[in-house]
Amino acid sequence: MSTPGSLAEWNPGLDGSTTLRAAYDEMPGDDASVIPWRVKLLENPASPVALPGAVDLFGHDCIHILLGRGTLPQDEAFVVGATMGASGELAVWQQQLFKMWARRTYRGAFRLSRIDLQIFDLAVEFARRGRVKPLHRVAWRERLDHPLDEIRTSLGIDTTRLITVYEAERALWPRSFAAQRLPRRSAAVTTRDPDASPWAQ
């Protein structure tokens, strides 16, 4: 069992050569028993009113790794948004329902701020526009020994586009610790127009 501090400090980055199993083994975390019912109601696939993209805790953790996000509220918002957006089934009213529920009923560290919810929207659009395959339907345990880059490619997660979105997030919220530690574009990648849309190919 990890301490809250170690969980908050965990940051997987976007290393592509390591396997999903190796990355998962380094991830601190709590078991599902600590997740409040308010969160499970819309985000757990076993719930009768779960929203599109609902995924179990193991799958959710694997998606954190694939997207290179830690476990701060902004990271959680991005992971949930990308998972819902990739489902191909998320309606506008469901997106708005989640935002209202997460803002008004989630408690403590689980509650999402207005900024977190903007990041959620950013992630929904990233997954939709990038045509990321439904992440909640992936048989994650069957991919544990595959390299992360291979998994990302197979699921339509383009790391160049992902980093472009992270650059936009960092520009919008420059004082955010979660944004500051997001993966950055390598020097080998051509620098884009800073005024260009984060959705540009």
Topology:
Blueprint: H1 4-9, H2 20-25, H3 37-43, H4 57-67, H5 73-86, H6 92-104, H7 114-129, H8 148-155, H9 159-172, H10 177-180
Task: Provide structural commentary.
This protein has helices at 4-9, 20-25, 37-43, 57-67, 73-86, 92-104, 114-129, 148-155, 159-172, 177-180. With 201 residues, it is an all-alpha fold. The chain has one domain. The protein is globular, with a radius of gyration of 16 Å. 32% of the residues are buried. The model is unreliable at 1-5 and 187-201 (pLDDT under 50).
What's the short story on this structure?
The protein is built from ten helices and no strands. The protein is mainly α.
- Summarize model confidence as the mean pLDDT: 89
Q: Please give the largest β-sheet.
A: none
Number of helices: 10
Distance between the termini: 41 Å
Helix fraction by DSSP (H/I, runs of at least 4): 40-55%
Shape: globular
What is the helix/strand order? HHHHHHHHHH
Structural class: mainly alpha
Contiguous runs where pLDDT drops below 50 for at least 5 residues: 1-5, 187-201
- Relative strand content: under 5%
Radius of gyration: 16 Å
Number of domains: 1
Q: How many strand units? A: 0
Task: Give the tags.
disordered N terminus; 201 residues; disordered C terminus; 10 helices; mainly alpha
